[in-house]
């Protein structure tokens, strides 16, 4: 784990938490680590002769939490917080917890909110004027921001320019930067961290993973995910209600998830009586005896009504490559699989001369712009607290990870190893197969 | 008010409610009537010499409620309930209240649910076989149906054939039919009622108005409307959150309402800080100095973000007539004004070279397939109770109306006089103008 | 209707709303009035020879709404807002609407929040120092206060001293005072208004009725009532669930309502399957063949489980007068009828040797400290808007009333005529009797 | 892990899940185990020479999930389900998932619900008559039971008589019994399991842990806990609102938790701005410089208002032993710490002559009788599925555990080792200390 203590000397300040904490409550860096793979099989593999070292790296992570000695002197500390990318329920909770923790527990006096994501660092190197005003934050100004969805700081998708951003941090004398964002943001954060190291300046950079799709590596859940599941369930229930209330009714819901069907699958398991769950990880085949369309017709005739949950990233290979467009950032624009299925299914029933009523619901941004469930609030509080503990202890270049019910420090370099997807051999997908009775592959 | 007592003799059975009610609580037909127009101006007009009779008809409606004597002997009574048209929150509550009231208070033993709307009467006149099974209903079978959205009976849009339906009612010895539906359904109910009268058979037909758009005449509110407003507010809040969290953010929400902007306007008033409300009743002009697009650009630049609520029926005249399609029933298919505005606004900002982020939300069926708010539950309970009181007293050919906080009996013939729309001179729309600051007309 | 125009000259400033409103949308004082009693019977009585004048006064109220000419020049206007008494959902919505309307529509620049109710006017007449700081309010500072329950201004029960309060208003150059509160507060407001008149100073005082119990005269509903009903229904549903899940289960819920059973009755009607509803308006008799205890035992044995809703003010005469205590303000402290019934019922079953499980729920302040339902938000918006219209037009000494779906101006003197209670001959209570099957009186 | 295969021969029936699952998805008994302690420290300790065997037992649990071969032939199988003890959100979801899984996936045809807990097994050994009718369950009869709180089977606290219960199971030819309940119920289940073993009859008994207090060993979370947290947060928010809206306001909420402060602590962490969290695990001292009362007064004066969350089991040692009563089952009745604190705090402020307003909320059963959050629904689904997989594979005498995000099989004998409590050295309590700033001990 990278730490400013490696280059700039020991953490020597006693933690202000000592007043209320007893000594044994603090985490010890060397000692407190947790396994990445907790299966017996993984363990046996790791502990074979000549592979013992694998046991420690990368197969354990440093445990997050308060340290007895801290690196920074709170009095003169300057902290910046930035939220990047799309919305997720809980952004404000995380910001609120960062701010109240820094100010109420660690007595930090200078905290700034950077507006509209990495764009907020934009400045003219000559005049040193910033394009957007930074906002001063304290306990009072964030008191009720958890009652609102979105990000009170403003967020944005703009690309990061590490050199310009480190310039901005130095111009403003920032000691700690918290970046809240998804895998793109965290890759950007890693680049900023490398630039900070290159310049040999003492700035802690701590990432906090945010992804409504739950597709960041090394974190088993992300804030806002559960709240999004709640709203997806609501949309599914509405579609199910429409289907049940009509003769040969079909309810179809499109749910967020470009690369991962995690949200769609979880929402479907939360419900009773969902019939088809379509995710990017399982190729979609429509035609033929064992294709989706035939399965749908059969089930409608057999059961009277059905409900379908489709992740927005599902079935993208059904569209001819010529139709693929790219957005400004070069990402492929997804084709609308929901509308596409709506038309295909309706046409199929018409062709077979079977009466049906299909209702299509696309809750889209309603999943991500709401406030948090109680459980998500707890998760955001812990994330924020652990990020503050990490930064105050001088940790840097890491993200607050979560796995096996433990918060950890995950090197930012490990985060960019890839994107987490739904594993079709794992319990969640098996629960979906078991709950729906649908086949494990189509066609 | 039409009543079976006119043709078939007096209501002679004492109401079973006498056990718990005291005598003075019952409504007296001749005496208890309420004014249609409660303004002083309307009253003075009505009470001018030689116009006194206008005062009574049609400017008062009979008050709904329990009568001391009832027309039907509950013991042998057979009752049918049918739900028609699209879903609205509260359908199950109304059915539940009809059933528990009939069975627990009036001791009616034979109650049937007719499935899938008027389709449920379909039968073969020769074999007397019905296409769909009717469902026996009692207090236990409807105990928790208010926990679900939709209609447990099933609903459908099929046209009514009065002759066939009255045949079906007679085949099944039905004495009372409750039809729950919108203006189309109620027009159908009137035709059935005329056929019943023509045949001189003692069958009570009571309509219960259902319209998520709140566009039925003589009812100031309809069941499910408030619940739908609640969900529309949720969608608006999400759009507002997206807009506030982005630089030059725009949130756009499309809300149900083919002919009436009532739902859209009410939801907008429930919110703070909505900027534009677009309804079918106010012609939409996009171009020019005083057009919508210019107003939007100005407000985004001035305020930083905006939120727009658009009723699905708004701005339909913007589409070339050649593009208009009709559905199976001959109704014009609405063009998607939401998607259209999304494109127009985005293009306008691009043309003016102003950065913006527009998020479009279409909550569609989520507004109508949910369960009821507490207040809607109360309203459904009272509607159901008053419908049962009316039927048991021998009333027929009427709908349960609601105006000025009173439930009334409204002749079905009066219902088909027209469709209620939003009055742009009335308080609701003035509240919208005052809350948004938008002009009273475009262009 | 009292108006500052009577003493200080005509309303001559054109309404700033003219920009968006068209002329015909404005209310005309003489012309637009609505009937207090809308029944035909009431009307006939009022229009009998020699009683025609009764028709106009007091049987009509002036219609609330925007006037074309306003009395005040917005530029220099100073406005104060005070919230008094206990909490109700929507206090913040009303404050928010007052502020945004005053500032965004009428361009008023100086708006102050008075803290902790009438206490907030406390000042030293010599030093002119105020005990509590007043808070400056504008559109931005109230932007999200509707996301919180309670009152951001703070509220309090302190008595009003009209002389000191008018002194305070004059010290601070206040032109308009909005007081939001219940019947005590409004009586206080009337005393302040009389003192203002006595001093012949041009200050508009507009009251906004607030009562979670719905017991203010001339208003058919009050803000927060529906939201409170929603939470009461939740508590009832929990009690019902506990009852249904246990052998011979009894669920008992105590609901707010010192003098009026309106909240309890409304919540009970919203539910299916409530068995007993106990309110202050119907004397409670426990013992004997037709007493409550016997009815409870019979229904538990017959049906298997029951749910009871009791208003906190019900059955107070069951307690010996010697036990009555008074609080600081001289009001009688209510005895806890919920706990009392819990013990009595448990003992009764024990005495009869019948197994039972009784679960008691007292949601208390949870009914009043929450945020608003969508419908309540709409109501608060309209209340706030109409209060601002009234004040700007120079109206004074009045409360914004609501009856028969119209907002009105009700003289404060008429408000103190009495307290509204549940009328046991009215539809609401009849719905309760019909829904529960309980007798109209006990014993 | 105990399994019927040990005594009655191999699991030879192919799993009906093979149709939709692919072979590699099934769990292998010997291979798939997970660590109980996932810290590196624990691991090193376990893998020291001569202690290697500890690694496998008890420090790993068998992984739950579907097996490729099953023990039971579904055709003739008879299954019983019983819910015991107090309510928890999700009881119906678990029952629903057991039933739909058994019937839709494993094609089990005979499933019975045993009413009112272990009482439902009561029968006359001579006449073989059962005191309560068992209810036949299938997919349709449980379709919407997750829309209701409580247990549709009925639940009860009655003691278990293992001999009589095994008699009942054999009389009814039951092959699998699912018991859903807390530690008492699971201890009872273990006794039943021992009796089954003694009789050498092939009956699978699978326990499903239920505890709103989250105090069962080997399960890091229990169903309904998150939903209860959600409601506790609501109560805390109401109390906080009351406190903020009053001068020197104090909000006090009592939250379920006889032995564990887990629910109280979690709810407090979900909130911003809670001041005191009182749990059974931390002794309460009221008096003195470092006592609670002094801390409360200081914070009210300093901050203006405070919010206190107290677990019902906190501070029980403050009551004189003479006051302790026992209930029918011999458990000590908790004294009402909420009411007690309310009086003490009010008196303290009175004694110090400081104005205050204290509002006390006891949401009690509202925490446990509601329906589930989406996340709890997912958890219930997985619990139910894994219980069915375990039973069908012939597992017995075990409970479905959950730790480190994995479902496991935990021997019932291990469950009765003790009761889980809040560890004041663990992250959750440290989060509470950090969030509130309260000291780690009182006095």
TrEMBL record, chains A, B, C, D:
Lineage top rank: taxon: Bacteria
Cofactors that this protein relies on: Mg(2+)
GO annotations of cellular component type: cytoplasm
All copies of domain Phosphofructokinase, residue ranges: 78-390
GO BP annotation list: fructose 6-phosphate metabolic process
Key words of the record: ATP-binding, Glycolysis, Kinase, Magnesium, Metal-binding, Nucleotide-binding, Transferase
Keyword hit for Transcription: no
Stored InterPro entries: ATP_PFK, PFKA, Phosphofructokinase_dom, PKF_sf, PyroP-dep_PFK_TP0108
Catalysed transformations (reactions): beta-D-fructose 6-phosphate + ATP = beta-D-fructose 1,6-bisphosphate + ADP + H(+); beta-D-fructose 6-phosphate + diphosphate = beta-D-fructose 1,6-bisphosphate + phosphate + H(+)
Molecular function terms, GO-annotated: 6-phosphofructokinase activity; ATP binding; diphosphate-fructose-6-phosphate 1-phosphotransferase activity; metal ion binding
Keyword Magnesium: yes
Role according to the record: Catalyzes the phosphorylation of D-fructose 6-phosphate, the first committing step of glycolysis. Uses inorganic phosphate (PPi) as phosphoryl donor instead of ATP like common ATP-dependent phosphofructokinases (ATP-PFKs), which renders the reaction reversible, and can thus function both in glycolysis and gluconeogenesis. Consistently, PPi-PFK can replace the enzymes of both the forward (ATP-PFK) and reverse (fructose-bisphosphatase (FBPase)) reactions.
Family from the record: Belongs to the phosphofructokinase type A (PFKA) family.
Stated name of the protein: Phosphofructokinase domain-containing protein
């Amino acid at each position: 784990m990278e730490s400013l203590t490696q280059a700039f000397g020991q953490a020597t300040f006693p933690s202000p938490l000592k007043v209320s904490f007893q000594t044994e409550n603090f985490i010890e860096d060397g000692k407190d680590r947790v396994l990445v793979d907790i299966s017996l099989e993984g363990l046996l593999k790791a502990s074979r002769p000549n592979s013992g070292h694998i046991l420690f790296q990368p197969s354990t992570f440093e445990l997050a939490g308060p340290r007895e000695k801290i690196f920074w002197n709170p009095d003169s500390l300057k902290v910046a917080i930035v939220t990047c990318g799309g919305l997720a329920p809980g952004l404000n909770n995380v910001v609120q917890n960062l701010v109240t923790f820094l100010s109420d527990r660690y007595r930090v006096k200078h905290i700034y909110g950077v507006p509209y994501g990495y764009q907020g660092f934009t400045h003219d190197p000559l005049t040193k004027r910033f394009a957007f005003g930074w906002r001063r934050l304290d306990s009072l100004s964030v008191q009720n921001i958890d009652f609102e969805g979105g990000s009170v700081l403003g967020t944005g998708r703009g690309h990061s320019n590490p050199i310009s951003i480190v310039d901005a941090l130095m111009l403003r004398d920032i000691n700690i930067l918290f970046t809240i964002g998804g895998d793109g943001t965290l890759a950007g954060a890693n680049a900023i961290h490398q630039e900070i190291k290159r310049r040999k300046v003492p700035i802690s950079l701590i990432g906090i993973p945010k992804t409504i799709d739950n597709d960041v590596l090394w974190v088993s859940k992300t804030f806002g995910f559960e709240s999004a599941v709640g709203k997806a369930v609501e949309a599914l229930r509405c579609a199910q209600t429409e289907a049940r209330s009509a003769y040969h009714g079909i309810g179809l819901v499109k749910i967020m998830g470009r690369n991962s069907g995690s949200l769609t699958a979880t929402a479907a398991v939360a419900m009773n009586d969902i019939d088809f769950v379509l995710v990017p990880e399982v190729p979609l085949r429509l035609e033929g005896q064992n294709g989706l369309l035939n399965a749908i017709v059969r089930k409608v005739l057999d059961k009277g009504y059905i409900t379908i949950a489709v992740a927005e990233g599902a079935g993208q290979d059904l569209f001819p490559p010529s139709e693929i467009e790219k957005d400004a950032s070069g990402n492929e624009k997804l084709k609308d699989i929901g509308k596409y299925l709506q038309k295909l299914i309706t046409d199929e029933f018409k062709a077979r001369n079977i009466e049906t009523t299909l209702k299509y619901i696309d809750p889209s941004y309603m999943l991500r712009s709401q406030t948090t469930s109680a459980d998500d609030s707890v998760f955001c509080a812990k994330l924020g607290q652990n990020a503050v503990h990490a930064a105050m202890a001088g940790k840097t270049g890491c993200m607050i990870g979560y796995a096996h019910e433990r918060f950890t420090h995950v090197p930012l370099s490990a985060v960019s190893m890839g994107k987490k997807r739904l594993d079709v051999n794992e319990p969640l997908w098996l629960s979906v197969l078991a709950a729906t009775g649908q086949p494990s592959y189509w066609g």
